[in-house]
Amino acid sequence: MHVVQQLLGEGIHPRHVLRVQFDEIEGLRKLDSPILRIVDWYEQAVLGRTLNQVAEDGASTLLVFDEVQNLAEWAPQLKFLVDTSTTQVFVTGSSALRIEMGRDSLAGRISTIDAGVLSLTEVARFRGENLGDPFLADNGLEPLTKPEFWRELVVHGNSNAEIRDRAFSRFSERGGYPLVHRSDEPWGIIADQLNETVIKRVIQHDLRIGERGRKRDPELLEEVFRLACRYVGQSPSNALLARECNRALNAAVGDQRIANYLRFLGDSLLLRLVEPLEIRLKKKRGNAKVCLADHGLRASWLQEVVPLDRDSLREQPDLSTLAGRIAESIVGALFGTVHGLDIAHLPERSGEPEVDFILTIGTRRIPVEVKYQSRVDPFRDTEGLRTFMEKTANNAPFSILVTQTDVAESLDPRIVPISLPTLMLLR
């Protein structure tokens, strides 16, 4: 709706925008090729001409279809539409898994944007405060390859420190789903809503989607998600997760089934699985790093709230290690929503230290290490970054160190320290 409102403000004719809400309405299922029939009606009753004739006259049209994944055979209909008409189609849906299933039919004709949860700038706006626009514009990744960009982001974060920290405290407490910021209801009520409208909706509703004849076990899926919450920010092996599932469910679950269920949760966007870096034709070794779409899901599902803001952690220092794992997950999820950015992690190999994340942009790589603690050791905590940068083949002229607070210690000049609250102003 915001996109449509912006286009109308920029002067597009209201008749040139068609928006249809494809909720699960029985009447739509009875139509033969409902998308094509609705567009036919739109051309005749609203435009008075075809989409191609509008384009020939130098104008443009936009078709906005929401929850289109609820229709059977929606992707082939869209393929026919865009192949025969000059128009643009904007498809939105709350089931990432169902939308993703249409990609094969629309190969070469579709570009996917993952909105992710609320950014810190948006969390601030929910509270009536202004942190400005996202620091990274939507027109390319080139700025990320320049250390000056990251240093400017640090300055931007420091200049808005008071509002930034209030927004981050709110994000720490409740996560980033819009529903948790619409009211000041107690966390217990909000947590139940998250479980019902996000997690269980995926497990119960999207569970039925899969290869024909293949059944998924909802109890096993819930257990795999619970373990993902427990191992957040880490890279557990499928064998380890299988053993834990077998103990919890008194079942016989194999490694491959665990891998399939993790992929399912990743496709549904409850999780983000960051794969090990494959470099210089070396075989990948290691397991995917588990990052949650939002740490609020962990707090609601496990009923375990772990604070992330500095003041709360000072009062509960026993939670610092777990908070560090969650912070690592937040960083992975944040980079995962930057459109077109390749992200991996580097496990420990042949005596080389691990690196939490590797951002690849063209031929350049940017190593990122998360050290979410009250004090950073300039030498010990940067070993992985320095080792990676010193290998010429990695083509990594600088690196990023994500910290709990703004760092005053003198670090290697090739390392840009940036606090997690400031990093979240990126988008």
Description:
It is a single chain. With 427 residues, this protein is of the alpha/beta class. A five-stranded mixed sheet has the order 6-7-8-9-10, with helices on both faces.
Secondary structure: elements and pairs:
Elements lengths: L1 H8 L7 E5 L4 H5 L3 H14 L3 H6 L5 E5 L7 H11 L3 E5 L3 H5 L19 H7 L20 H13 L1 H14 L12 H19 L12 H13 L7 H12 L5 H13 L3 E4 L14 E4 L2 H8 L7 H6 L4 H17 L5 E5 L8 E7 L2 E8 L11 H8 L8 E5 L11 E5 H4 L4
Parallel strand pairs: 1-2, 2-3, 8-9, 9-10
Antiparallel strand pairs: 4-5, 6-7, 7-8
| Unreliable stretches | none
Series of H and E elements: HEHHHEHEHHHHHHHHEEHHHEEEHEEH
Terminal CA distance? 20 Å
Mean pLDDT: 88
Major sheet: 5 strands, mixed
The total beta strand count reads 10
- Structural class computed from helices and strand pairing: alpha/beta
Protein traits:
alpha/beta, five-stranded mixed sheet, 10 strands
Short synopsis of the structure:
The chain is 43% helix and 12% strand.
